[in-house]
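pls design
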């Protein structure tokens, strides 16, 4: 099966999974969907067994994203957008749409982060800064001298306040 065909078949299910998992971290649904696509691309490049049904592929992507969120940090790995995959010659650049940010949207992101920080308490602000740096919930708890449960509560408050 061609990767593009496989991706088109599983995309609706992957987007549903991504939307369900947004509350578990500071990644939006698009970030999680793209991470699942990269995971799927990597498996496909490595020669994912031919003939696997879509339900198996979707479940593998879901387990990957749960692990990704559980670890709480970006997974290392680099992928060339121009490297051909297998014998098809298809590249990641051809399969995934171009979502490159321009400078103005990057500035808007920084302004949004500053606006979020304004509405937070001192502890929530510190937790937010550490989360942005990629620290795990347990690492943050150790650094601030609080329980990981409190970090999770602060994180939920931050998410609520950021959606206002």
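designed seq:
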């Amino acid at each position: 099966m061609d990767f593009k065909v496989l991706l088109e078949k599983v995309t609706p299910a992957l987007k549903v999974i991504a939307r369900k998992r947004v509350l578990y971290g500071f990644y939006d649904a698009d970030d999680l969907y793209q991470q699942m696509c990269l995971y799927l691309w990597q498996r496909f490049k490595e020669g994912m067994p031919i003939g696997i049904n879509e339900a198996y592929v979707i479940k593998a992507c879901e387990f990957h994203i749960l692990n990704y969120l559980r670890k709480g940090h970006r997974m290392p790995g680099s992928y060339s957008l121009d490297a051909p995959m297998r014998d098809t010659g298809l590249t990641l650049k051809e399969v995934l749409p171009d979502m490159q940010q321009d400078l103005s949207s990057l500035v808007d992101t920084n302004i949004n982060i500053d606006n979020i920080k304004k509405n937070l308490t001192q502890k929530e602000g510190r937790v937010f800064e550490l989360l942005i740096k990629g620290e795990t919930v347990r690492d943050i708890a150790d650094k601030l001298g609080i329980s990981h449960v409190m970090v999770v509560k602060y994180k939920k408050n931050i998410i609520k306040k950021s959606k206002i």
